[in-house]
C-alpha cells in the first residue's frame, strides 16, 4: 500500500509538472519573439544590402589598396602595402572579409529564391552576383574556400579550399552560375517584381546583359587555359551584352553623407596620403590624355597647373616628402563624389574585352572599331571630353602593340577599381608597371594576395594545405589562369 501510494504520488507529480510546464510554455515563441525584429529577412532587403555594401566597400578598397598595386597612386605614409608587404593592410588591403560577408548574404537570397516560389525572381540576380563576387575573390587570392563556404548553418565553419580551375569551371561555379542565372531570368514568368535592385531598378533584361558581359570577362580571363573562341563568337553574334553607358551595372554615389564615396569621409591627413604615381603620370602624359585633370589635381607648388607623380613604395622613414610637390587625388574623389559610381561592369569594359578577343583572333570582328568605341565610352564615363585627335595620335590602336594599347586604356579607365588593373597586368603584362622605390618583396611585383592571418587562426588545417600549395602563402605564386 505504501508503494502504491508512492506510485500515485509520483504520477500525480508528473502530471502536475507537465501541466505547469505546458501552462508556462504556452505561447512561449510568441512571448519571446521581438515583434520589431523579423525572423527572416526579405530578399529585396538583402539584395539592396549586398549590392550597396559590396560596391561601396570594394570601391574604397579598389582606391586605397588596389590603386597602389596597380600603380595608379602612391602612398606617402602608412605604406607597407605600397611597398608590397601585403600581409600588413593599413588604410585598405583586406578584401577577404568584405567578399565573404557579401557572398554569405547573397547565398541567403539564392536559398530563399530556390525554396519559395514567391521569391523565384531573385534566383537569376543572386546567381549572377555570386559569380561576380566569386570571380573577384579567386582572381585576387587563387584557390579559396568556395563549395563549402558562405552557407551559414548549413555547412562546416572550417571549409576546405577549392582549386581556382574548379571554381571557374565546376558545377555551381562561376560560369555555371552565370548560365543558370541567365536561364532563370529568361524563364521567369511570374508577376512579382524584382525589388531592392539598385543596379537596374528591377529590369531583368539589364541583369541578362550584365551576365553576358560577365561571361565574356570570365572567358577572356581564363583564355590562356582553354580556347574560348566558340563561346565568345556566339556571345558576340547574339549581341545581348552591356553596349551603352546607359546600360552599365553601376550605382551612383552622392556628394554628401551617408552615401558618398568613403574617401570623402576620411580625415584630410588620410586623404592626402594618396598622390599621383609616377607610372600613371607618365602613361597619361605620353598619351596626351586630359583625364589626368579628372583623376588628379595640379601639385600645389606648380606655377602652371602641372601634375607631378611619385614612384610607388617609398621608405617613409628614410625619405622626406613635401606634399606640395605632388598631385593629390582629384575633386571627384572627395568634394564631388556625386560624379562617381560604384562600378560592377560597364560598356567600355565590355568593348575593351571584345577588342582584345578580336585582336587575339577569338572572334571575327573589327578590333579597331571596338577599341575606339571603348575609349570613347571610357572618356564619357569619366566626364572628360575626348580630344579630336586622341584616337589618331599616340593612343591609336595601330600605334605600337595593339594588345598593350587595349589593356593600357582599360587600365586607365579602371581607376577606383585598381584591383582590376592589377589583375589585368598579371594576366597580360600590360601596362608595364615599375620596380618600386623600397620594395619589401625583393623588387618583385606580387601576382596574388596572401590569405589573411585570420584564416590561419580560424581555419588552420585547411589554410595550412592551401599555404603549402602556394609556396607558404607566397604573393609571388601565380594563380591558375596566370600559369602559362
TrEMBL record:
<feature type="signal peptide">
    <location>
        <begin position="1"/>
        <end position="23"/>
    </location>
</feature>
<protein>
    <recommendedName>
        <fullName>SusD/RagB family nutrient-binding outer membrane lipoprotein</fullName>
    </recommendedName>
</protein>
<dbReference type="Pfam" id="PF12771">
    <property type="entry name" value="SusD-like_2"/>
</dbReference>
<feature type="region of interest" description="Disordered">
    <location>
        <begin position="464"/>
        <end position="484"/>
    </location>
</feature>
<dbReference type="InterPro" id="IPR011990">
    <property type="entry name" value="TPR-like_helical_dom_sf"/>
</dbReference>
<dbReference type="InterPro" id="IPR041662">
    <property type="entry name" value="SusD-like_2"/>
</dbReference>
<keyword id="KW-0732">Signal</keyword>
Amino acid at each position: 500500500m505504501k508503494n502504491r501510494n508512492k506510485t500515485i504520488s509520483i504520477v500525480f507529480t508528473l502530471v502536475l509538472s507537465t501541466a505547469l510546464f505546458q501552462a508556462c510554455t504556452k505561447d512561449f515563441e510568441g512571448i519571446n519573439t521581438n515583434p520589431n525584429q523579423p525572423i527572416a529577412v526579405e530578399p529585396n532587403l538583402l539584395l539592396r544590402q549586398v549590392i550597396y555594401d559590396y560596391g561601396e566597400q570594394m570601391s574604397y578598397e579598389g582606391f586605397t589598396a588596389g590603386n597602389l598595386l596597380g600603380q595608379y597612386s602612391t602612398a606617402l605614409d602608412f605604406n607597407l602595402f605600397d611597398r608590397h608587404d601585403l600581409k600588413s593592410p593599413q588604410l585598405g588591403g583586406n578584401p577577404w572579409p568584405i567578399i565573404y560577408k557579401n557572398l554569405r548574404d547573397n547565398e541567403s537570397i539564392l536559398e530563399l529564391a530556390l525554396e519559395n516560389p514567391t521569391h523565384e525572381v531573385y534566383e537569376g540576380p543572386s546567381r549572377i552576383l555570386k559569380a561576380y563576387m566569386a570571380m573577384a575573390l579567386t582572381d585576387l587570392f587563387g584557390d579559396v574556400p568556395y563549395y563549402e563556404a558562405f552557407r551559414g548553418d548549413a555547412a562546416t565553419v572550417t571549409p576546405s579550399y577549392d582549386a581556382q580551375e574548379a571554381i571557374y569551371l565546376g558545377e555551381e561555379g562561376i560560369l555555371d552560375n552565370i548560365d543558370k542565372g541567365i536561364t532563370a531570368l529568361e524563364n521567369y514568368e511570374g508577376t512579382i517584381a524584382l525589388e531592392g535592385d539598385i543596379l537596374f531598378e528591377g529590369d531583368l533584361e539589364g541583369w541578362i546583359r550584365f551576365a553576358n558581359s560577365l561571361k565574356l570577362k570570365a572567358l577572356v580571363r581564363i583564355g590562356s587555359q582553354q580556347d574560348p573562341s566558340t563561346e565568345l563568337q556566339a556571345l558576340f553574334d547574339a549581341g545581348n551584352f552591356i553596349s551603352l553607358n546607359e546600360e552599365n551595372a553601376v550605382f551612383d554615389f552622392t556628394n554628401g553623407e551617408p552615401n558618398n564615396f568613403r574617401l570623402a569621409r576620411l580625415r584630410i591627413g588620410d586623404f592626402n596620403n594618396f598622390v599621383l604615381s609616377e607610372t600613371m603620370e607618365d602613361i597619361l602624359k605620353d598619351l596626351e590624355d586630359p583625364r589626368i585633370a579628372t583623376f588628379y589635381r595640379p601639385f600645389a607648388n606648380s606655377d602652371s597647373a602641372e601634375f607631378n607623380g611619385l614612384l610607388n613604395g617609398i621608405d617613409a622613414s628614410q625619405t622626406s616628402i613635401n606634399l606640395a610637390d605632388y598631385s593629390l587625388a582629384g575633386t571627384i574623389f572627395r568634394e564631388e563624389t556625386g560624379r562617381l559610381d560604384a562600378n560592377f561592369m560597364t560598356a567600355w569594359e565590355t568593348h575593351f574585352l571584345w577588342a582584345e578577343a578580336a585582336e587575339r583572333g577569338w572572334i571575327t570582328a573589327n578590333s579597331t572599331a571596338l577599341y575606339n568605341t571603348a575609349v570613347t565610352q571610357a572618356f564619357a564615363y569619366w566626364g572628360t571630353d575626348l580630344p579630336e585627335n586622341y584616337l589618331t595620335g599616340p593612343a591609336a590602336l595601330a600605334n605600337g602593340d595593339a594588345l598593350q594599347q587595349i589593356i593600357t586604356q582599360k587600365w586607365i579607365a579602371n581607376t577606383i577599381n585598381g584591383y582590376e588593373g592589377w589583375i589585368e597586368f598579371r594576366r597580360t603584362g600590360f601596362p608595364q608597371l615599375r620596380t618600386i622605390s623600397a620594395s619589401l618583396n625583393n623588387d618583385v611585383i606580387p601576382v596574388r594576395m596572401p590569405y589573411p592571418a585570420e584564416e590561419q587562426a580560424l581555419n588552420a588545417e585547411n589554410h595550412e594545405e592551401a599555404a603549402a600549395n602556394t609556396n607558404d602563402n607566397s604573393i609571388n605564386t601565380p594563380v591558375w589562369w596566370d600559369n602559362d
